[in-house]
């Protein structure tokens, strides 16, 4: 039974990992209290209706939000080192724009 549970959880984790898109940060700009970043690899199916079709390569960080400065630091590190990342949005956009707010940054392992 334990083997069956292990196999089931392993297969599930593989399928979740397979859905993650790897991005490279290509541009970082600060505009007012937000960071706008562009990525290589556009999102093909965003879950947020407020995203403009012309901005599928863009994400935003609200520097006034809790954790915003930390996300900015991670993004700068990925940008400077040209390291691939996995990005997860908040499913909401900047109040004054059509760019999805960034929720999480995960550095992609160099082994993958």
From TrEMBL:
It comes from Pseudoalteromonas luteoviolacea. PROSITE patterns: PROKAR_LIPOPROTEIN. This is Uncharacterized protein. It comes from the Bacteria. Keywords: Signal. Residues 1-18 form the signal peptide.
